[in-house]
Design brief:
The protein has helices spanning 2-23, 103-110, 127-130, 145-152, 224-229, 239-256, 266-269, and strands spanning 26-39, 55-66, 69-73, 88-90, 95-98, 117-121, 140-144, 174-177, 181-182, 189-193, 202-208, 212-216, 259-261. It has 280 residues and is of the alpha/beta class. It binds zinc ion.
């Protein structure tokens, strides 16, 4: 009788311990400066508003330290731009892209090499997110089926992709996703489908141990303005789908108390500690 009781107690203890273990997988996250994009006219991103005004978009990569290993989210502007102090003019001169400090150097400062990263995902495959993707061939690539098809299909350029940025990922172990995916199986890092900007755009929800859940936006929205006012640029792959994604993610964020961290919003990012410091 006593034996049964202790077994039951052990089972109950195990059951009680489970939720704590589920939230403790993520140890910390590094927000890495991964370049800047200077634009001549911000209204390209905010149709009809601030027409003709220049703007500076921040750009970040996010490195998550989970008990089961490192995960990198996005790779920023290409490291080769570090050799171009005046930046690289793209999109017919509308954007000048800078990368003052190569991603490999930022990783080195944290004590990580590209080969250490075993879990890897891009919010989407545009150049300011996939600039250094080819470094991460040792990782499992987590990618939406629609994005993978666009990246490695016959016409990646049609989606605004530069195939040379990520060509080496063709050989990676790939986790092809349709929808949401729990990366470490403990609910601490979840990829969520957020299509519209590109066919298989996705966002990442990271349950930080002290800060709580944070959603990394990718380009679901580029600016706080776009999130608040439900605005999508006309160059998105699918504008109505972009709006539906914003609505769905707003509902999710409200229901779960998740903060949205907007990659390209310089003003919001000024408040977030950058690598080699980290957030918890
Ligand atoms: Zn972007």
């Amino acid at each position: 009788m006593r034996k049964t009781g202790s077994v039951l107690a052990a089972l109950l203890l195990a059951a009680c311990a489970t939720p704590t273990e589920q939230t403790s997988g993520v140890e910390r996250m590094y927000v890495i400066n991964c370049g800047e994009n200077h634009v001549k006219d911000v209204s390209r991103w905010t149709p009809g508003v601030n027409v003709g005004k220049p703007h500076v978009f921040s750009n970040h990569c996010y490195l998550v330290k989970h008990a089961k290993g490192w995960m990198l989210w996005d790779t920023g502007n290409a490291d080769r731009l570090a050799a171009m102090p005046n930046g690289l003019s793209v999109a017919g001169g509308a954007i000048t892209a800078y990368m003052k400090k190569p991603l490999v150097d930022s990783l080195k400062e944290i004590g990580v090499t590209p080969a250490d990263i075993k879990h890897f995902a891009l919010s989407h495959a545009h150049g300011d997110h996939s600039g250094n993707a080819n470094l991460f061939t040792a990782a499992t690539l987590y990618v939406q089926r629609a994005e993978y098809a666009a990246m490695f299909g016959p016409e990646p350029q049609k989606f605004g992709f530069i195939p040379d940025n990520f060509g080496k990922l063709r050989g990676n172990t790939a986790m092809i996703i349709d929808g949401d995916y729990d990366v470490f199986g403990d609910g601490s890092v979840t990829i969520k489908a957020a299509p519209g900007h590109t066919p298989g755009h996705q966002v990442l929800v990271v349950r930080l141990p002290k800060t709580g859940p944070v959603m990394l936006s990718g380009d679901m929205v580029h600016l706080q303005y776009s999130w608040t006012n439900r605005v999508a640029p006309s160059f998105n792959f699918d504008v109505p789908q972009s709006m539906a994604t914003i609505d769905a993610m707003k509902a999710y964020a409200q229901q779960t108390g998740t903060q949205l961290w907007i990659n390209h919003d310089m003003e919001q990012n000024a408040k977030i500690p950058k690598a080699p410091a980290f957030v918890q």
